[in-house]
Amino acid sequence: MPIQREKTADCPYINFSEDGNLEIEGRSITEDPFSFWQPLLEWIEGYLKKPASKTKISVFLEYSNSSSNKYINELLRMFESVHGKTTEVVVDWRYETDDESVLQLGEDFQSIISLPFDFIPVDVEKERARKIKIKNKKSGSEAIITFKYWDAIVRNGHGEEYQILEEFF
Question: Do residues 158 and 140 make contact, with C-beta atoms less than 8 angstroms apart?
């Protein structure tokens, strides 16, 4: 069963599915990292019992504190033990083109973990200009907005009031 969490002001978007695609995107600065990360580690433990033939871990962090980094390290280490045995694992480490600290964090993980990393610079302004179609869960009204506007909705704590219907690239 997949696990998905919407992005908040202090927790990243999570989308882990049995098809081998795991996404972590956003800011990870929660004051209670155990409550956020532990269920994800437990999901991975179950997934690794019967993983997809190929697993892609896509990480795109805006910022991550040291407590979250500890859990991300643990998450990656779990995959290190099965890479090349029951699944082929690749880490897509995405970072804003001018964000040296997030790039360095990925390079630090790569230096201590035996998994293949692909480093992918992202032009955030272009990315945020992309559009999405959302639906208000309460009223049913729909709108097409930019990702930049969507990020503001989420940061202000209203992300759970909407459902993303479609993404336009």
Answer: no
pTM metric for this prediction: 0.76
CA dihedral 121, 124, 128, 132 (to 10 degrees): 10
10 Å CB burial of residue 68 (0-12, 13-18, 19+) is buried
Which backbone phi and psi does 96 adopt, to 5 degrees?
A: -65, 140
21 and 84 belong to one structural domain:
yes
37-58 mean pLDDT: 96
Give per-residue pLDDT as tens, 21-32: 999 999 999 999
> Are 27 and 60 in a shared domain?
yes
Co-location of 39 and 101 in the same domain: yes
DSSP 137-157: TTT--EEEEEHHHHHHHHHTT
Domain that holds residue 133: 123-169
Same-domain pairing of 19 and 95: yes
